[in-house]
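Exercise 7. Given the components listed, write out the predicted structure of the assembled complex. Treat all entries as one system.
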Amino acid sequence: MPDESYRRFLDPTVVSKLATMELRARLVVEGFVTGLHRSPYKGFSVEFAEHRQYMPGDPLKHIDWKVFGKTDRFYIKEYEEETNLRGYILLDASASMGYGEDRITKLEYGSYLAAALTYLMLKQQDSAGLLVFDKSIREFVPPRSNPRQLHMLLSELDKTEASSTTGIGEVLHELAKRMKRRGLVILISDLLDDPDKVIPGLKHFRHMKHEVIVFHVLDPREAEFTFETDATFRDMETGETITTEPLAIRRDYLDAVGEWTARLRRECAESRIDYVPVLTSTPYDRALFSYLEKRKRLG
Amino acid sequence: MGFTFLNTAFLFTAFAALLPLIIHMISRRRVDAIDFSSIRFLKQLERKKIRRVRIRQILLLIIRSLILLFVALAIARPTLRGALDGGVSSHARTSVAIVIDDSSSMSRRTNGGVLFTEAVARVRAIAELLSSGDETFLLTASSPTEVVIGDGTFSPDVLDAELSALEPTEAGTDYRRAVTAALGYLAESHNLNRELYIIGDMQRTGWESEVGSLVETSAEPGSPAEMAGKRVRGYLIPVTGPTGNCAVTAVCVERRYGGTRGMYGIVAETRNFGARPCDIPVRLFVDGVQVGQTGAAIDAHATASAAFSTAVDVNEWHSGWIEIPTDVLDADNRRYFVIRPEERIEVLVVRGNGTAQSGGSVGAPGSSGRVGAPGGSGRIGERDDSYYIERALDPTRRGERFHPVVLTAGALAHQEQGRFPVVVLADIDRLDDAGERWIERHLTGGGGVLAVLGDGTDIRYWNTELLPLLAGGAIIGPVERRGGMRLAPVSAGHPLLTGLVFGDRLIDDVAVRKALRVKIDGADEIMEMPGVGPAMVATTPPVGGAAALLYTGIDPAWSDIPRSGLLVPLLHRIAGRLAEPAARELDCVVGGDLAVPYAPSHSGAPVVLLPDGSEEPAVRISGPRGGAVLRRVNQTGIYEFTQSGELHALGAVNLPEQESDLEAVDEASLAELLDPLEITVIEVGAALEEEILVARHGRELWRAFVYIALMLLALEMYIARPRFAERGTDAG
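Answer.
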C-alpha cells in the first residue's frame, strides 16, 4: 500500500468502515506514522537496535560515520527505547457518548482513538491499560506491555456500547486512588457532567503526580447546534425533553457551550493538564500528535 | 351608533382565524423528536430564552389569527350603523329643523367673505339631501328667535328664497332658545326620522344662559320637547372665523359739577377679546362730529377705559358714539349714547327723628329746602348721613339735577304724594304708621326709595316692617372692623358701576368700618366686602317702584364714602335709576325694548325714527312718570322719538356686550348641553353631505379592517424574521 493511501485512515468516517478494531488501530497509526519524518517507535537509548538511512531533519550527531566511511552513505544509528511508561486510557461510555448524527458516534470516535493510542503505545514498548466507565467503572484492563495486551484491549473496545448516565468525577477519584505508580492518564469523554465534579477528579490525578491528557470529544452538532426546524430534544441520559426553536436560541446555546469549554480549558491549563478538544469529524492525527508531544515531554 | 355587517353570509369566513391555531396544533404534533446527548444547556436557557421564544410564537399565532379574522370581517363589510336603522327606513320621510345663527357675530369677516354666507351655503347643502314629503323648519339663533319657516312644508324654492332674504342681524345669540323652539317643532312632527341641524359659529356666550342640559332644562319631563330630544338626531355644523376682536363694551355719560355749565364726562370701556394686546385709537363723536380722540392700550382678554370731556347745551337732547378702528367684527366698534337735557328731580331725604339739627324743621307739604344744615355749627359730629347725601346730590347747591329736600321721619306723612320721584331714608330708626303708609303708596305709584342703614337703624323694626315693604329679606347683624374693609365690585358690568371700576377695585379705595350684614331676596348685588361677604348696595326688582339699600352709613364713622370720589357718581346713579322706574333705560341692546322718558303732558303715541331712516310707532307707558317704549329694537344706532315733527326724546341701541366675545364653545360642553340628543359634530372643512349620510346610514369600515390586517401582516413579518428572533433572545 502506498504511504499516502494510509493517510485516509486518519479520517474517522473512513476508519469506521473498517472491519475490525485491530485493523482500525493499525491503519490509523500507520497512516499517522507515514506522515511523520521520524519514526515514533524508536528512541535513542543505549541498546542498539538497527541502522536506517539518513533522512533530512535527522540530527547529524546520530550519523554513524564508520558506516559512512565504508559505504559512503549516511546511516543513522537507532537504539531500543526503554519502556517504563504506564498508560491508562479512560473511555467514557455513558449514554451521551452514543450521540452522533450522520457520522460516527462520539463513543465510536473515542473507541477508535483509544485503539490507535493503544496500538501506538504498545508499539513504543509502553504498557497500556483501558478503563471503560459511565457512572461507574464498567471494565478495567490493567496496563501491560506484552503482545497479547493489544488484542485484549482492542476486543474490549470493540464490544463497548454506550449506556447509562455519566459520573466522571466519581470514576476519576476512584481510579486516582487505585493507581499506585505514576503514569499517563488519557481521558476520552464528552465531559457532559457537572464541571465542578469533573475538574476536581482530573486534579486528583495531578495531585498523584500523574500526567493527564483530556480528549474532549464532541459531535459537530453539539458544538455548533446546526438544527433548523422546531424540535423536541430528548436527553439521552435522563430522558428529559424540551421543545424549542433552535434558530432562535442558537446564539445563546453557543455562548453557553463556549463558556463551558473555556472553563474546562482554563482549569486544565491551571493544573497542567493537556486539554484537547476534538470533534468527531476531526482527523485522528491531531489526537495522536497530542499524545506524542506529551510522550516526548515525559522522555 | 350600532355595528353591523352588510354581507353577513361571508361571516363564516371568520372561522379562518382558527387556521393558524389548527396548523400550530398539527405542526406541534409533527415536531421532530431528537435524541440529544444532553439538554443541560437547553435547560439553562429555558428560563429566560426559551420561554421568550414561546411567547413570541404565541404572539405570532395571535397576530396571524387576527390577520385572517380582519380580512374575513372586511369581506363581510363591517358597518357602523347610522341613525336610520331598524324599523325606520332610510327612505322614510324626515322632519328637519334647521337653526341658523344670524347674530351679529356671524357678520364677521373671513378670508372668503362673511361668515354668515358660509352658514347659508351649509343650509343649502342640507336642503340638497331633502326630498319632497320631508318637513322643514327654519329658525334663527339670534335673540329673539325668529321662525323663518314654521309650517314644515319643504319647498326648495321657498327655502332658497328665505335663505336669500336672510342677513346677519345686529342681535345677540341665543342658541338655547332657538334649539328649544326647534325641538318643539320636531316634537309635533309625525315623521319618525327627525333631525336637528345647528349651523353657526357656536359662540360660547350664545349657549351660556343656563347650566346643564339644554334639552332637559328646556322641557318638562315627558313633554313633547323632552321626548323629541330623546328621539332627535342632532348635527352641529360649526363655521369658524377669526376670534381676535376689540369692542367698545360700555359708555358712561356723567354730568360734571363745579365747572362750566353743560360739561359732561364720558368714559368708554373698551375690551380686547383676543389673545394679543392691542393699542388702538378711541374717538368720541357728539352730534355726528368728532370731538375727541385718545388711545387705549389693552392687554389680551382685558379692558381699558378711555375718558373724554365735552361741553354741550344742557337744554337739548344730544347723541353720540365712541368708535374704535375696524376689525373682524364691525358692529361692536361703535357704541352709541345719548345725553338727555338736564331735568330737575326733587329728592326727599328723610332723616331720623332723634338726630340733632342746628336748624329748624321745614316739614310742611310743598315746602322745599333742607332741615338742619350743619354748615353753621361746623361740628362734624352733627353731620349725619343726610348732610352728606344732600351735598352729594346737589354739589353746586343750585339744584341743577337733583334738588334734595331734607326732613325728619315724623314729617314724612305730611308730604305731597307723587312730588318726589325718589325718597332717601337716611339712617332712620323707624317710621310711624302714617310714614309707612306714605312709603307704601310711594312705591305703588312707581316711586323709588333708597334706604341708607346706619347707627339709627332699629334692626327689629326694619326686619318686621320696613324691609318687607321695600325688598324682603332681613338684617342679620352688624359687621365692624376698626381697620376697615375694602369695597370690591361684584357686578363690574352693572350700569351703576360703569366707569367706576378699574380691575377689581373701585375708582377710590373705599374703606368700610361698620356695616350691617343684610340678606335680601333676589337682590341685584353691586359691591361686597372681601372676607365679609355681604353686598354694600343691593337694588331690588321693581314692584311698582324700585328700592335700593346701602348697607353702610354715609357717615365718616361708618365708611370713607363721604370723603371719596365714589359718593357723587354713586348717589347720582342710584337716584337717577330710582327716579325712572317706568322708563329706566335710555339705551338698550338689540332685541330689547327701548324705553325713554316721555312727559305725560304729551298726548298720543310718538313716532320713532329708526337709524336706517324708517319710522315705527312707539308705545306709551302710563304711570306717574310715564314713558314711551319701542319694542324689540333690531338695529344699533340712535332712535328719535318724535311727535308732530318735534323731537321729544332720544334713545341709543347697541350690540349686546357678550356678542363681542367670539370664542366658540368646546364640543364637550355642547354635548353636555344637548344631552341626551345624539349629536354629530361635522367639522369645519368636512364634506357635509358625506358626513350627514354617514351619520344617517352608517359608515363602512372594510377599508379600516383591511388596513389593520395589513399592519398586522407587517408586524407579523417583522416579528417572524430570524433576526428579530435572535434579537428577542439577546434582549433577555
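Discussion: The mean pLDDT of chain B is 81. Chain B is about 25% helix and 30% strand.
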